Fold these 3 entries.
Entry 1:
Amino acid sequence: MQTDVAPQNLAAPPEARPVGVRTVLRYLIGGRDAIEAIAASRRALWIGLLFVLSAGLAREYDQHYLIREPAYLLIPLLASLIASFALFLLIRLAVGRQSAPPGFWRAYRSFLTLFWMTAPLAWLYAIPFERWLSAYDATRANLWTLGLVAAWRVALMTRVVSVFAHMHAAASFFVVMFFANVAAVAGIMFSPVPLPAVMGGVHYSEAETLLALVTFSIASLSVITIPILGLGALVAALRRTPKRGWSALAACNSAHVQPKLRALAIAAVLVWLTVLPFTQPEQRLRWRVESLFRAGDIHAALAEMSVRPRSAFPPHWQPPGRYGFERHGPDLFTAADALADTPTADWVRGLYLQRLRECARDWHFWHFGNDDIPRLANVLARLPEGPDIAREIREELEERLTHTNQEPGRYRAALEAMLALADSQVTTPP
């Protein structure tokens, strides 16, 4: 007995329609005809690849020194390959054999083309909010942009999966959202902001705190909803009722790609190459300083920063040497200690002294490792500004000292040394 779907139940391959700029625009708003035309075109894959490369340039043209950090251009491409393949496997699992899928790699090629064609949405990331807004407002604007693009992509891929695999819209939504939430949790694991430190009360800038809180909220919501969405995806798989097979959309015919679309895809890459000379000089300086910090040459890094004004570096850039960011370079105490014997520009010295003050004033700081208290005492003793900073935290020092009877002698001695420094008559030179 023949168990596969009879050939007459499969839809005939769609007529080869030229894929042009209008097709892509209709695709981005979920037009069925555009989805079918792109999925059935072998040549559209290369247009999608150019769009992915242009999206990487749009995201990174003013964030990294691309000559020395080219991996940042390849990361979006690699991530898209991994994500599209994982989502494709999930769709195949949900659809099963009832839809008589075509050859695996032929179908994946069509799906990858559709996946890559969402890349133009990432062009919104190119808006340079940092050059117009404060660090906090720029972070808010970037988060709103990220939310808009993410929501748009989820809605579009839900529509794409529904058309491509002929799944019910609700089933497509559960499959796509389940995948998106798992991907979000995986991505947050590599967050550049140390969430435990932020949630524990360590002082960071308003922009970083906002970013960390939003990231934490997304992670929490994703973890909570993953089981629900996974159950919905499972139900969708068990109740699959495809209207017709998806082989028609994965036929990979030779649909013509119009010259205007090819020109747009090439221009989308070239336009960023013309912008790079205006944004890369400051990124080169950032990369140079961060490389010196990573190599442990703190004095050379401070000197490199000091020979240039703050405006020569990227807007809102935070140089290494921060408490809680040790995995990204030297910690705050190492950087601040180097100030004692390194001539620095006022903006460089002021930046690290401000970080030291904020760290010392933050009461939550005292809940961290006891080794940090002696290090703080040593740094304050070496800096001309040390007595002033010690006086600012006198009350915290005295209160902490009353609870150190059982603490190691080195820890208690460091507190007493900072109190003595606070009582000294040395003042910061004007």
Entry 2:
Amino acid sequence: MAQLLAQALAEGQIAAAFQPKVALAHGRLVGVEALARWTSPLIGPVPPEIFIPLAEREGLIADLTQTILQDALATCAVLRQHIPGMTMAVNFSPILLDDDDFPAQIDSALLAAGVPASALVAEITESQIIHDSRRAGATLKALRERGITCSIDDFGTGHSSLLSLLRLPFNELKIDRAFVTNCSSDPDARMIVQATLGLAREMRLNVVAEGIETEAPETMLRNLGCTIGQGFRYGRATGIAGILAERPTANLSA
């Protein structure tokens, strides 16, 4: 699999697909998230939960990230011509935060695409423990100083926790779909979502709820003060043509 992944990166088999993010107040498209997709000519589609950890273990995560980042920023440049102010979220492995050159590499990618730093949301999924929090914090601080939003992904699961918010300079958190999808029917999930939103307000953090699939959780989240939603209710990951053709609007059917 490691050899297939290296070959896939070399041959351009991996590309980004884009999932909409909408403002819950009015249902309009405000951003998208770039999601890595790999379809191997030998074995067919390979799930990200398989090839991304593999890339981290085999030292291929930097190459994979550059592939997706360049694709995402090029797409962002086009989308912003049609929808001013659009943001592009890209996932970054915590491994990359140990690289002192990482912020400069992002600078180069932004410059090449002609996209302002304020259009980029750097989502950090703590799939691995960040051992050097001081270096990671310095990297995130450097990104924030450029105007890039630093988001902690899958908050409340794995290593993405309160400790991360305490020691690292994030300015956005994403509530994991495990709490969002059934929050309108599961009292415990609702309690966690409500507490997370309260914490975010106190810490002055932007909040994105991922995993919204139906109207009920959307309505509840909007009433609780969540600002941005993401999930199948607004569209699955697609190409740029799909994003422009099917811009999410308010009152979508489930």
Entry 3:
Amino acid sequence: MAKRPTFLQSCSDLFKDRRGNFAMMGAVMVPVLLATGGVAMDMTNMLMAKNHLQDATDAAALAASSSLVNQSLTQAQAKLQAAEFLKTQMLNWARSGMSAEEIAKIEAALSGTSINILEEKAALGNAKKYTVEVSAKFDLPLNAFTRLLGKESTEIGALSKSISSTEAKNALTMYLVLDQSGSMASLTTTKNPDQPTVVCGKKVCDNFLSKIAALKLATANLLTQLKIADPTSSLVRTGSVSYSTKMLPALAPDWGVTGVLSYVNALPASGSTDSSGAIETAYKALANNSEDSAHKNKNGQVPKKFIVFMTDGENNYYNGKSNDTGSDTATKKTCDNARTQGIEVYTVAFMAPTRGQNLLKYCATDTAHYFPAEDAAELTAAFKYIGEKASQMAVRLTK
């Protein structure tokens, strides 16, 4: 009769038996391996989701800042714009690989996006500075393998901040020197936006802007940029002078832009061309110590000074008689003096011949200050750029 094994012997035999070890180890390790693979895939998804959300918050913050500094939206509207922009960006991404239920959860989470706008006044009270902060988060669903570890989702978050401002960084005086000679009465290739057609005889004809009309529209655009930067007329002074056969009565610099706008809108077009007296008048007005004193008493600053010199032709008159070179020589001498005094000279050649272009290229502070304009649209664009450059509008991302 065989001897019955003792309890201790049975336990010893069990531990020594290696049969079935692989199956047991597999039963334990397979879920672990699947979960590990799931975590690896989800880490990639989390990184992509984080990048998408950061890009979306960055774009939303910049969009709101740009709208505020350009004064196209109120603060409430800018917040709505930023929130809708962010949500649209993220939902487009989510629809590429998520279920309708998961997308709905993300949409609900993004509805709670935090958007804060802080408006600050500059020291002199004329400029506005906006800080836009966009903070968003949502729960990213995890895949079935990762859920074996007991976690259904993970939170993804992002924060972006942008700063925008509209400001005249320095007080400034700008003097416009404008050609109103007879050639300014000729037509451009641009239709009048207010009345594109007219009746001529028994048919309808295109109604093209004259050069002088295009100049008035472009000047208004430039002055608008300065007005936006200085709505209280505490930093910006403007003046203007026009010329044809001789310099016409000038408008001395004064606060704001209203006087210059009225002056330019009243300009006729007649006569020959002599820019020498007009450019000298602008230079002397800006170089005069009284201009610095006006700013010191008003805003405590030393102003930047600008001349905007425009022509559509070439000088052909000087000292009361026809002369092809005398006015050019005198004008160049004044431009040299302006450079010596640190006055920035912007020049715009409006459909001008070669000699007129060469004169303005010479007078410009540098090549970036010279603009050739071959039609009314290019003239307006040049004047607008000059106004924007002077008023220094800026938007930047800080975080």
